[in-house]
């Protein structure tokens, strides 16, 4: 690996994500950053009918996965102090409503055109040096422990699209579930199909949790993988 920082390309469902890891020749540092695929605002100010909450306005952003974004306040909740159960239930209801009422499109691959979750925020999207807090409820109503790499990427793309931040203006994002922090900034403009997009850099702390060695046995009939259609 190269010093003082090694680039590591991770092959994700959305495409290659490049992580940059500090490396002094012996040890890696814990402050890491990554650049994901071009991120874009898929739709701003979409009104959906959410059972139990009525008409709700959301933004939809793509940062390697699609998320709906809205301030928790619009659902009568506070992202910092409401019960996690209430935040999860409300976010899940928004996800279901957006899935039913809004058709997503991904220019490169329609298999990526699905809503992965809803991110409830404190509404602080205008640029500020203060952290902004969010909670990401994704997949089967799981709560992310971090501010969400793909979610922060999508949120920055939406903020950039709305003229709320400039290139290379860093913002700090806080997870309401654990308090962990990411910083994010748009580093350059890009395109994804016809969408005006940005490459976003997200940084945070990463630690080793284990190592694994994979082997292939010649007799393994599935050694080259399989695909179920
Ligand atoms: O940070 C991320 O992008 C991942 N964590 C939860 C949702 C995504 O899978």
From TrEMBL:
Q: Which Pfam families match?
A: Pro_racemase
What's a single GO MF annotation on this record? trans-L-3-hydroxyproline dehydratase activity
Under which main EC class is this enzyme filed?
lyase
**EC number(s) in its UniProt entry?**
4.2.1.77
Domain of life of the organism in this record?
Answer: Eukaryota
Q: Does Lyase appear among the keywords?
A: yes
* UniProt keyword list: Lyase
Under InterPro entries, the record lists: Pro_racemase_fam (IPR008794)
Reaction(s) this enzyme catalyzes, per UniProt: trans-3-hydroxy-L-proline = 1-pyrroline-2-carboxylate + H2O
Q: How does it assemble?
A: Homodimer.
UniProt lists the family membership as follows: Belongs to the proline racemase family.
Listed name of the protein = trans-L-3-hydroxyproline dehydratase
Please tell me the species this chain comes from.
Chelydra serpentina
């Amino acid at each position: 690996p190269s010093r003082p920082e090694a680039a590591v390309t991770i092959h994700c469902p959305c495409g290659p994500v490049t992580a940059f890891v500090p490396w002094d020749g012996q040890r890696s540092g814990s402050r890491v950053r990554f650049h994901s695929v071009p991120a874009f605002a898929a739709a701003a100010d979409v009104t959906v009918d959410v059972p139990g909450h009525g008409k709700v306005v959301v933004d939809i952003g793509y940062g390697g996965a699609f998320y709906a974004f809205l301030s928790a306040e619009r659902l009568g909740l506070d992202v910092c102090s409401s019960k996690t159960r209430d935040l999860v239930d409300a976010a899940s209801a928004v996800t279901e409503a957006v899935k039913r009422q809004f058709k997503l499109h991904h220019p490169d691959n329609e298999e990526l055109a699905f809503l992965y979750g809803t991110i409830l925020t404190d509404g602080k999207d205008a640029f500020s040096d203060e952290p902004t807090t969010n909670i990401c409820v994704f997949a089967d109503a799981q709560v992310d422990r971090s501010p969400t790499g793909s979610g922060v990427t999508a949120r920055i793309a939406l903020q950039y699209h709305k003229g709320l931040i400039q290139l290379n203006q860093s913002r700090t994002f806080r997870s309401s579930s654990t308090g962990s922090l990411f910083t994010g900034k748009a580093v350059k403009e890009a395109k994804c199909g016809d969408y005006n997009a940005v490459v976003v850099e997200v940084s945070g702390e990463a630690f080793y949790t284990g190592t694994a060695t994979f082997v292939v046995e010649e007799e393994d009939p599935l050694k080259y993988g399989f695909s179920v259609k």
